[in-house]
Amino acid sequence: xxxxxxxxxxxxxxxxxxxxxxxxxxxxxxxxxxxxxxxxxxxxxxxxxxxxxxxxxxxxxxxxxxxxxxxxxxxxxxxxxxxxxxxxxxxxxxxxxxxxxxxxxxxxxxxxxxxxxxxxxxxxxxxxxxxxxxxxxxxxxxxxxxxxxxxxxxxxxxxxxxxxxxxxxxxxxxxxxxxxxxxxxxxxxxxxxxxxxxxxxxxxxxxxxxxxxxxxxxxxxxxxxxxxxxxxxxxxxxxxxxxxxxxxxxxxxxxxxxxxxxxxxxxxxxxxxxxxxxxxxxxxxxxxxxxxxxxxxxxxxxxxxxxxxxxxxxxxxxxxxxxxxxxxxxxxxxxxxxxxxxxxxxxxxxxxxxxxxxxxxxxxxxxxxxxxxxxxxxxxxxxxxxxxxxxxxxxxxxxxxxxx
Length: 404
What we know:
Elements: H1 20-42, H2 46-76, H3 87-92, H4 96-104, H5 110-113, H6 119-123, H7 126-131, H8 137-168, H9 172-199, H10 212-237, H11 247-278, H12 281-289, H13 296-314, H14 323-345, H15 362-384, H16 396-400
């Protein structure tokens, strides 16, 4: 039985302040990523440059939209344990608009990424002609714009109600967040599926998988949850929340992160298993391309990076409650997500005799770090300008007495 109404609300903690060196480092990442992208383009490596750009833009945009999704999920499931750390996903949503603009910029390099943008290739390929109604630049830009607009508007609306409640204390704002969240999750499922098809699966337009959207959704949740855990554990270690977020809340967040590792493994294996036993050429080409030209090692190490290591590390109770341990697991998963995007994107750019050989992702990692540096600058700047916790949320008292 909850007695959260008996707990007096504490005074608001001091505003969050991130170390100055993190802003400097993020700025260096941005400069390094932009410089690397420019170098690859200027030296005639357009495919490499734009594949790195795609991986970085998709990675960072996913972190931004996860902020809205995380608020929606915890709101609809009445996850009051998460109320006190809600400012983290709220600040993540600030990246959606700039991230969307940069993601649409992938279209500028579409000629180097997507075979379906080449009229001559389409004219000689019956299957691409059949898919042309969906795989064309008009749909690419149109659906991207609609999806990103939906994410931006719902992110702004949900965060506005949360921040407005800090001033008014009205329960009506929480009710509005429930309604917005319910609508958002439906629109998100449809729009994110379309975006993942256009940006990633259409790199190999002959290939298709009915589980691909679920896999990219799982990637988004696992990576976004890892970032929330990384920031929350870091702030708890510094005592930034004055106990409003404690090891019990970290344990709940860490449990969610732990669950995503198992879910990712389930979806990743199921996609492989279904394609393997059906043995349909249009499906197997995806894995065959990643088992040749040196890519096999990458595809074998990926389950170890994204499942085996974090799963085993997060099994002990302490790994989800001790800040530095949770931070280590979260950081590992964030790196592993880059590896998965690298394996998704890089091998797809070569075909036949021009297949791309496996290589160290130096350019891809530097460009991706540039995008993540820009994401961090927007996130940290936004979070520092807002109240650290939504003290007037009606679920705050229950959150404060939460025990795991």
